[in-house]
Amino acid sequence: MMRFTFIVFLFISGFTFAQKPVPELWGTRVHDDAHVLKPETIEALEAQLKAYEDSTSNQIAILTVSSLDGETIEEYSLRVAEKWKLGQEDKDNGVLLLIAVDDHKMRIEVGHGLEGVLTDALSSRIIRNEMAPAFRRADFDEGVTAAITAITKAIGGEYTANDSSEIVELSTTARILIGLGIYAFLGIFAFFGLFIKGGWGWFMYLFLTPFFSIFPAFVFPLHLWYVPGVSYLVGFPIIKWLVNQTTWGKKLAKKFEEGGGSGSGGGWSRSSSSSWSSGSSSSRSSGSSFSGGGGSFGGGGSSGSW
Question: Phi, psi at residue 95, to the nearest 5°?
């Protein structure tokens, strides 16, 4: 029994020591342990958060770390918030903004009392719209400042930023994917047209011309919409002529012709239809001592990455 107890003690002790330590609060609201914020930014944020607490009693703190050392950001963020006891004891109105620079992760940890106004959805939106774009540019000063401003506005019911930028990005991505699919499909028929002898090859050329001329307007930027159509109109005849002048082109055209069994036109129609069917530390310059008010947290908030 004593051996078992000793082993359990060693296991628990090892797990405890393996956890990333939580820094002391040291009387400040901004802890730049990763050293990514400018001194003037830290000073401005410290003053902004102090003025905000004085007017609302809500406590917001910032912590940047270089790495989470293998711990999840949700676990570490909750441990920091619980140790610092952000927010008033009777209101639980604390917020922690945590950024792990080397891990490219961030989290907004929200106290019980603010979960109704600073919701998980709003926290996620702030991370996506305010923090991630700036962090991708390595502009942590802008990203953290924008996040704090958005958090205070969200708590006051004034944050109205939507996901319009994300919707546009998704829409653009969807249009590109659709366009690539369409052009791949058209490209198959254009490829066949290059090797089909006689009038059928040029019929395919004329038949596909409107598609290569119209679809770019829905896929490419307005100033580039004409590029695919012009490239097809000029490039197809040139490539077809080169194919007919080369040995390998003639061999490939002959295989297309022989594959149909009865003429070039019939060969193309049957083969194509077969294909279709299978187919820092902390700032000390604020001049006022800051300490947690005894607030509690329950895991509310949101995490993200960049």
Answer: -140, 135
Bridge partners of residue 65, in order along the sequence: 100
Q: Which has the closest alpha carbon to 31: 88, 101, 87, 117?
A: 101
Interior/surface letters 53-81, b for 16+ CB within 10 angstroms, e for the rest: beeeebbbbbbbbeebeebebbebbbbbb
3-state class of 208 per DSSP? helix
Structure tokens at 111: 């106290």
Q: Over pLDDT 70: what percentage of the chain?
A: 69
Query: How confident is the model over 112-133, as pLDDT tens digits?
Result: 999 999 999 999 999 999 999 9
Beta-carbon contacts of residue 141 (< 8 Å; ≥ 6 apart): 37, 38, 41
The per-residue pLDDT for range 73-107, each reduced to its tens digit, is 999 999 999 999 999 988 999 999 999 999 999 99
Residue 274 — φ and ψ, nearest 5°? -65, -45
- Give 121's contacts (C-beta < 8 A, 6+ positions apart): 302
| Crossing angle (nearest 10°) for helices 226-245 and 247-260 | 90
Residue 128 DSSP class = I
Flag whether pLDDT at 208 surpasses 60: yes
